[in-house]
Amino acid sequence: MLLLTVVVAAVAIAAWQVVHRSSLLVRRWSASSFPRRGAGSLSMRDSGTTGHPNEEVVVLLHGLGATGDYFGAFYDGLSRQRRVLIFDLLGFGRSLDEDRQDFEVDDHVAALDEALVTLGLGESTVILAAHSMSAAIALTWADRHRDRVGHVYLWGAPVYRDESAAHAVRQEYGLMSRLFVLDTKWAERACRLNCINRDVSGGVMAALSPRWPTKVSSDVSRHTWPAYQSSLRSLVLHFDWTAVLPARVPLTFFHGADDPIGDQACIAELAGDAELVEVASADHHIALQHPELLFDALGATPGEPTATSP
Question: Around Cβ 8, how many Cβ atoms within 10 Å?
């Protein structure tokens, strides 16, 4: 029996390694080379100043259950022409705050404002590129700072009509989101269990996600229950997209043809003059599968990450 167990475990490990090593994302992804720093309530990777007067700033914002490290070295090449800030959202990653309870859209926007001012970028022109849940933050910030916005780019924006949002999240997001929508108590228990030891939880998530770089999948555990619950409610389930759409700033939606997230008919109805770009052979993680989209839009040259996933 012991021998059989050892054999099964060895086969399982070997199979995991085969899937992991053959994954395109694993082979292409590497950690950003930008140093990490803090500003206000937020942690970020900062490419540093370009030295150009009136420098333009690119702000990258991650989605639910991720951190800024999601983007990796794919996006380092943007710093050749602009300053690049890759944020951990308030309550996530290294912006995690165990004592904070409020993570409404206004809290996220205020934290972004505070960070930019702290960095001396309170008057700079900003280009926002936001994945999934953070689309609500990007659009809200842009609406309040229209005179400073160069462009807003959204990957996989979770835009829904009010009555369909909860159903869509239940069907299309991960296990934690389904638990949350179906039974708040069970979701809270699962999240609090995760918070007891995030390193262990992160290791489990990495083991369950062989197609992902281990750094990216293990970061799924780095949030608190209030951050997860409040952000999901305010940025997806209950967000009023009609308050920020049609946008009064230049806006582009990138949508993967295989991405189930977002009501595309609703987006088309609310988009106004925004550019809608559907990309073949891409799903909800279009930002990683096709980083060239943002480079092409900005006239930049993509970086060439060479390291492998940890």
Answer: 10
Q: What is the pTM of this model?
A: 0.87
Q: How far is residue 188's CA from residue 54's CA, in Å, rounded to a whole number? A: 45
Strand residue runs (E) in 140-272: 149-155, 251-256
Dihedral-angle region of residue 51 (phi above 0 means left; psi in -120 to 50 means alpha; beta otherwise):
left
Distance between first and last Cα of the chain: 34
**pLDDT tens string 125-155:** 999 999 999 999 999 999 999 999 999 999 9
Q: What is the CA radius of gyration of the chain?
A: 19
Distance CA 28, CA 302 (A): 13
**What are the DSSP E strand ranges found in the chain?**
36-39, 42-46, 57-61, 83-87, 126-131, 149-155, 251-256, 275-279
- Residue 235: CB atoms within 10 A of its CB come to 24
User: Which residues partner with 58 through β-bridges?
Assistant: 84, 127
What's the distance, CA 30 to chain centroid?
A: 16
Neighbours of 247 (CB within 10 A): 20
